[in-house]
Design goal:
With 406 residues, this protein is mainly β. The chain has 1 helix and 19 strands. It is 4% helix and 67% strand. Strand 11 (235-258) and strand 12 form a beta hairpin.
Length: 406
């Protein structure tokens, strides 16, 4: 399946219109919520690089909207977000765009779901697993589509099957190492409610990756078994573990001259390896907030043509000081290792710490301030350099009044 910017955008809107205007339109309920987030930003190392760099100041404006339409047997959503980045270094100015539309139809024990999205983003986002790998702005453009079917087999047991296709492109990638790719993933899962507080789940996932330069192809298989337990009204925990198998094919193409005739030769190298994945988390809620911790190992497709093992430890604390003041504190450590492909030089450790303070001015206005510290260390770097970044921002958010027939 091939996506193009114009046809893809039209497809999302046509799909939304079809779902939002059924034959019995008078029975449909609608809701529209929107907001604008504006912030002033200072960053002393926006690309998290050890190269010579300057500090930057920025104005970031992010309008967003969410539309919902639903009827007795179906509902549909549309989310839209535009992020306008304007910095003192105008070479990194740009606009990030995100659109997604989804709808589901339920009839007795069957649920049918279809989702599609478009994401034009940059590598300025520290949530990206490839953050800090290039000392320049690199936009990615991702189209994805995902149908899903869920069957309620009994009152306690249900089955779900899904497919997801992603098409990833990059802009201006000369000398960056970034590789466009296609990724297809099939998933099947069973979830069984053991008790009112316990769930048991089994998930089988198969993925196929192909770089668009045809240099790497891999298949990834992950079976996973997990359990969720509601310890009490305030405590809950979940745990899952699984194995992974990766079958990869690398292709090396060489062109040489044979008595005046160009000859192209491609060599294929097959290899496979095994690993494991896990995810464990615990959360405690209290009267004014919550505290949670999570540790995981996951296989994550990277932008350099391959697959990473990403070990993550996350801590989060949320609380309210008063009815008007609240804050969150997030900390994350990651160990990122390439396990498929040839980019072992990108193996690294990353640490993030970010407190955020919010003040509710009134029902529509919220002010916020944040400090963010990020440090990254490449395991292949014998100089022991560990570039870091300090970011400070002050922002304000306006929530428009909701338009709703609910």
């Amino acid at each position: 399946m091939v996506f193009r910017a114009g046809s893809g955008t039209r497809g999302i809107w046509i799909y939304l219109i079809i779902l939002m205007f059924p034959s019995y339109a008078e029975a449909v309920q609608y809701s529209i919520t929107s907001k604008v987030d504006t912030r002033l930003e200072y960053n002393d190392n926006i690309f998290l690089t050890s190269r010579e760099h300057d500090s930057v100041f920025g104005l970031v404006v992010t309008p967003s909207a969410r539309m919902i339409a639903k009827e007795a047997n179906w509902e549909t959503y549309l989310n839209a977000r535009l992020r306008s980045n304007n910095y003192s270094d105008h070479g990194i100015d740009g606009n990030d765009i995100y659109l997604d539309a989804s709808g589901n139809y339920q009839k007795e024990r069957d649920i049918f779901t279809l989702a599609a999205s478009y994401d034009k983003n940059s590598n300025l986002n520290p949530q990206s697993s490839d953050f800090g790998l290039t000392a320049q702005r690199v936009n990615s453009r991702t189209w994805s589509i995902s149908p899903q079917y869920t069957r309620l087999l009994t009152q306690r047991l249900y089955f779900s099957a899904s497919y997801r296709h992603s098409d990833v492109e990059y802009e201006n990638i000369a000398n960056t190492g970034y590789v466009p790719y296609d990724l297809d993933t099939l998933s099947g899962s069973f979830v069984y409610n053991l008790t009112e507080r316990d769930k048991l789940n089994f998930i089988l996932q198969a993925s196929h990756y192909n770089s668009k330069d045809n240099a790497l192809e891999y298949q990834l298989y992950i079976p996973r078994l997990g359990v969720e337990h509601q310890i009490s009204e305030l405590w809950k925990a979940d745990f899952s573990i699984g194995g992974s198998r990766r079958n990869s094919t690398s292709r090396i193409t060489q062109t040489f001259d044979f008595f005046g005739q160009p000859i192209t030769q491609t060599q294929e190298i097959d290899f496979s390896n095994k690993g494991y994945v896990f995810d464990v988390g615990i959360e405690k809620k209290h009267e004014t907030g919550s505290i949670s911790a999570r540790a995981s190992r996951n296989n994550v497709t990277n932008s350099y043509g391959g697959l990473n093992d990403v070990d993550t430890l996350q801590l989060s604390f949320k609380d309210s000081i008063t009815e008007l003041w609240r804050f969150t504190v997030n900390a994350r450590y990651q160990n990122i290792q390439a396990v498929s492909g040839v980019q072992r030089s990108t193996n690294r450790e990353m640490f993030l710490f970010q407190p955020v303070l919010y003040y509710i001015i009134d029902r529509n206005w919220t002010a916020n301030a944040s400090y963010r510290y990020i440090q990254q260390k490449y395991t292949s770097d014998v100089s022991n350099s560990a570039p870091h970044s300090n970011q400070i921002y002050i922002g304000i958010t306006y929530n428009f009044p909701e338009i709703s027939t609910f």
